[in-house]
Amino acid sequence: MKARDFVNLLLRPGGYEVVRTRKRDHRPIFRADGLQTAHNHDFLRDPRFVAARRRAEQADPGVDIPWRLHMALWAASHALRLEGDFVECGVNRGYLTSGILNYLDWNRQGRRFFLFDTFQGLDESQLSEAERAKGRAEQGRARYRECFEEVRANFAEFERVHLVRGSIPATLAGEEAQGIEQVAYLSIDMNNAAPEVAAAEFFWDKLVPGAVVLLDDYAYSGYEEQKAAMDEFAAGKGVSIASLPTGQGLLLKS
Ligand SMILES: C[S@@+](CC[C@H](N)C(=O)[O-])C[C@H]1O[C@@H](n2cnc3c(N)ncnc32)[C@H](O)[C@@H]1O
Fold this sequence. Notes:
two-stranded antiparallel sheet; Rossmann fold; binds S-adenosylmethionine; 9 strands; alpha/beta; seven-stranded mixed β-sheet
C-alpha cells in the first residue's frame, strides 16, 4: 500500500484526505466551490474571463465560484446568438449577471435582461417541510439582507437591465413578466424548489428553440429537493437535465 493510501485510511473517518495538488507533469489542480479536478481550466487565465470575474466580485465581494461563472458565461454567450431576452430568477447582489454583462459587452448588444428577486432574501412561505427541516430559512436569514438600492447602483452602468422586485411566483403575474415574450437565457437560482419550478413553468413556453436554462443548485450537495423538483418538471416536458460537476444543471430547449 502506498504511504498516501495508508494515511488516507486513517484520515477518512474524520472527513479528511491527503490529495496531490499537482499532477506529476505539474499541471495545477482546480479546487474550489466543492469541485476538485486535474482537467483543463485554462479559462481562468483568459483576459475576458478575468475581467468578468473581477466585475462579478465587485458586485458581491467574497463570492468565488469561478467554474460556475464560466458555465454562466458560456450559456449567455450561446444565448446571444438567439433571439430573446435574458432572465435571472434569484439575483441577490448580482454576481453571475454582473460577470455576464461585462463579458458580453452588454451595452453594445441591444438586448434586455430581467432580474427577478425579492432583494431581501427567501420568501419563507415557499419552503417545503423538507427544506425547513434542513434549516433553509435560517440559512437564508443569515445570508441575505435588504440590498435593492445597492443592486440598482451596481447595475446602473448597464442599459436595458430591469430589476423586478418581489416574490416569485407573485411577480410572474405582474406587468413586466407578462411583457416578456421570448427568452434566450434563463438562470434559476433561488435556493428553494417551489418558486424555481414556478419560474421554469412560466418561462418554458417563452424559451426560443435552443434557449439555455442554467439551474444553479441542481446538483449542489444539500439541495436535493431542487434536483427532485426540477427532474419532475423536466420529465413532464420530455427533456432531461445535464448534471454538472459544478453543482449546476443545464437544460436546452430543443
Ligand atoms: C443564491 S441567491 C442568488 C445568487 C445569484 N444568482 C448570484 O449570481 O449571486 C438566491 C436569491 O434568491 C432569492 N429568492 C429566493 N426565493 C425567492 C422567491 N420566492 N422570489 C424571489 N426571489 C427569491 C433570494 O432573495 C436570493 O437573493
